[in-house]
Structures are given as structure tokens and as C-alpha cells.
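Hey team,

Filing this mostly as a record. A colleague (T.K.) asked me to run one chain through the structure pipeline before their review meeting, and I want the input and output archived in the tracker in case anyone asks later how it was produced. No errors, nothing strange. Just documentation.

Input sequence:
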Amino acid sequence: MHYRKIMPYLFISPMVVGLIVFRFGPIAASFLASFTRWSVYAPPQWIGLDNYREMFSSSEFWTVLTNTLIFVAAYVPGVVILALVMALLVNQKLRGITLFRGLYFMPYITSMVAIAMVWNWIFSTRFGLVNYALKTLFNVNSPPAWLADRPYTLFVLILVSIWKTAGFQMLIFLAGLQDIPRELYEAARVDGANDRQIFFKITLPLLSPVTFFVTINSIINAFRTFEVTYAMTQDKPSYAPTLAYHIYRNAFIFFRMGYASALAYILLLFVGFVTFINFLLKRRWVFYRA
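Output structure:
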């Protein structure tokens, strides 16, 4: 009997140990490191709140934070709307529709390195397809350096990020669309409702839980976006386009582990605050079928 009582704990113990050692342990260690001056090559020195004071007095930090907020504000509605439109398109009973679902999902599973090579060529200053079109079709003699100039770099990162991740969010929307009972649409048609009324009165309200999940997921992904930034802008601009990449530069290029840890906790606070606000507003627009 005693053996049966401890068996469940033995089965979950590897997961608990892994969670403590590889999750909670680094979280606590990075929190302590944020109050130190640590260059990896020397023991950390306790400096209190100096990292945070330096951060908030740095113009570079505020520029990077502004870039990150602009990225989030543009990426989240862009990926949610595009994913919803794609889900509506592939939620049709047409021959070969599964092929289009696979094509839309393919960018998400494609290597970021391969994607970066293609998009770097498209937006290349001298040989890029975009600048070639601007020169030949619109007579633009001096097209922008898309991956070096500050505003254009952010635009390209937003565009590529939306294009890459919309396919995954599309599948979530598609699952939500297919979960809506067909009887509701048939009843609305009998009552004389048109396509616009059906979309705004049935589809969107019943899809609101899925929309909420996609929105929260997109916000978190937008704040911690790193892969696309690293792959497309490494060594091109002289600044960090987003906060996650700014953390990487300070930690693994400048070896300022303490300062990078402080930046990471500021990023955590922003993600937690925005997520908390969304959960507070959830009751106003998210409707669950009971």
C-alpha cells in the first residue's frame, strides 16, 4: 500500500526536478545576476540597482524599447488578421484545399536561416528584388537600405515575422472555425441573414476564445522575438532593433551578463503587464459557449 502511494510522485519526479533545475533555477539566478556586474571571465560583483539606473538613463535602451513596442503594436494585429483571413479561406470544402493549408503553414516550419537568406536577397540594397522594382518601375534612383536604416529595418522584420508565423495561427483559427456548429449558420440563413451578418454575429463571437488565445500567444512571441532579428540583421545595423536582440548583444557580444539579466527582467515585466491587461479585458469581448 505504501508503495502505491509514492508511485505517482516517482513518475512525476523527473519532470519536477527538471523544472526546478532548468527553469526555476535559472530564473532565480538571473534575478540575482541583475544586481551584479558580471563579465563571465570574472566573479560577479554586487552593485545593487546600478544596472537598472544605467538602463533607464540610457538613450539606447529607450530607442530599443520604442522599437519593440512598435513591433508588438504592428505585428500582433497583423498576424491575427492575416491568420483569420487565411483560416476563412481554407475553411472551404473545395478540392485540393488541403494543399493550400500546407502551403500556408510551410513558412512556419521552414528554417529561419533559409528564410533569412531569401528575404535578405529580396531586400538587398544593390541586388534586391524590391529595390530593382523601385528603380525600374517607379524610377527611384536612391532606394533605401532596408536592413541598415532604422525605420526600414523594423518594417522588414515585422513583415517577415507576420509572413512566417501566420500559418501556425491559421491552424488554430481553423480548428476554432470547424468547432462552430453548422446548425447556427443554417438557422441564420433561414432567418435571412447575409454573409456579413453571419460573420459578425456568429463567427466572430464564437471564435473569440480562439482569438484571445492567438492574441496572447502573438503578444508573447512579439516581445521575445529574436530568431528573425538575429538571422536578418546580424552585423548590419549598428543598433539592436528589438529588446530581445539587445539582451543577446549585451550578454554574448559585450559579455555584460548582469546588465543583460536586468534587461531580461524588464522584458518579463512588460510581457506580464500586457498579458495581465488582456486577461482583465477578456470578460468584455470573449464569449464562451455554455
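Quick notes for T.K.: Strands lie at 36-37, 45-46. The chain has a mean pLDDT of 90.
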